[in-house]
Specification:
Elements (H helix, E strand, L loop, with lengths): L6 E4 L5 H14 L3 E4 L5 H10 L6 H13 L5 E3 L2 E4 L8 H4 L1 H8 L6 E2 L2 E3 L4 H15 L5 H25 L18 E7 L1 H4 L8 H7 L2 E4 L6 H8 L9 H14 L4 E9 L3 H17 L3 E6 L5 H18 L3
Parallel strand pairs: 1-2, 1-3, 3-5, 4-6, 7-8, 7-9, 9-10
Helix pairs in contact: 1-7, 2-3, 10-11, 11-12
């Protein structure tokens, strides 16, 4: 099958919210037609819940739903087996096993491109191997693969730079914007996995709710990742999980900023690494005297209850604000 004939399905879930520009640019540069599932809906969530094992966390269940939605519409699913995306750190085992779980759960599952991405020892070599194996899986070899890789790298760098540039509007110290009460909005740090923060249905649009309550949300991508890494290095021991360390580093950096009034950590019930990171972040927030709100979501979480907790949290931040 020629590459231009491939309709590759990319689930809009989990690591899509970290690497979508890279994946889409690379596959399209090789001539593939990339089909991305629609934003999460109740129907997609319910479909995933019906297929996944009960012990899976909500984001994994939602991934099942996106993959099942794509299955009858594409010739193959692109589900890379992410073992490690950086040196000496690893990804959650549930995410490593996604290709096998999908094959077992989805009836009439199309072929799954499950290229292994392991950058734990030699990052550059691991990335080259993943690029090569992905290209071979869809019938591409030679110079076009190198060219597609360069296009993808450039697209990804531009995307990251755009996020930080956009984030300058929300960076600590910025004073523009006045609330109806005549005062600048409260700066609130919001940390968590990107697949919760940026999936408006799954994550209940917490950023939008905080903004409507008079807050100014600061996300981890709104400042240079080196700042979070530097903050995380001050911990007694290096965190084993890549995403957990990124969340913890962002939380530490934000709680050290005087202008940040409080922090919200958005997590999913059943996430083992987050159970450690959430407790650790809360302990450090208390040491810094920063109010900290942990919001844990699952398929049974009611939006009204979340809004009530957010309203109470924002009211408390307003009361603590100096006159």
């Amino acid at each position: 099958m020629k590459v231009k004939q491939w309709r590759l399905g990319v689930p809009r879930a989990l690591f899509y919210y970290y690497y979508a520009p890279w994946w889409e640019a690379f596959l399209q540069a090789l001539g593939a037609q990339v089909v991305v599932s629609p934003p999460t809906t109740r129907e997609i969530m319910d479909l995933g819940i019906s297929l996944a094992v009960a012990e899976a966390c909500l984001p994994v269940k939602v991934y099942y739903g996106h993959a099942a939605w794509l299955a009858p519409r594409v010739e193959a699913l692109f589900v890379p087996r992410l073992v490690s995306v950086e040196q000496k750190s690893f990804i959650c085992p549930k995410l490593m096993g996604l290709p096998d779980m999908l094959r077992a759960a989805i009836k009439d599952c199309p072929p799954v491109i499950d290229v292994t991405v392991d950058l734990s020892r030699r990052p550059e070599e691991g990335l080259k191997a993943a690029i090569r194996d992905t290209a071979r899986a869809i019938g591409s070899r030679g110079r076009e693969v190198y060219r597609a890789g360069e296009i993808a790298r450039a697209r990804y760098r531009d995307w990251l730079a755009g996020q930080q540039e956009q984030g300058r509007e929300f960076s600590p110290g910025k004073k523009e914007g006045i609330t109806p009460g005549g005062r600048p909005p409260l700066a609130v740090g919001l940390v968590g996995h990107n697949y919760l923060l940026h999936d408006r249905y799954l994550g209940m649009d917490i950023a939008g709710k905080v903004t409507r309550l008079g807050g100014r949300v600061i996300l981890p991508e709104n400042f240079a990742p080196e700042l979070g890494e530097a903050a995380c290095r001050r911990l007694p021991k290096r965190l084993y999980w890549t995403l957990g360390r990124k969340i913890m580093g962002a939380a530490l950096h934000l709680m050290e900023q005087e202008e940040v009034a409080g922090l919200i950590h958005l997590t999913a019930f059943g996430c083992g690494p987050d159970s450690l990171v959430g407790d650790l972040a809360e302990r450090y927030a208390h040491r810094h005297g920063k109010p900290f709100l942990l919001l844990t979501l699952d398929e049974h979480t009611g939006e009204a209850g979340v809004e009530t907790r957010l309203e109470a949290f924002m009211d408390m931040l307003a009361r603590r604000r100096p006159a």
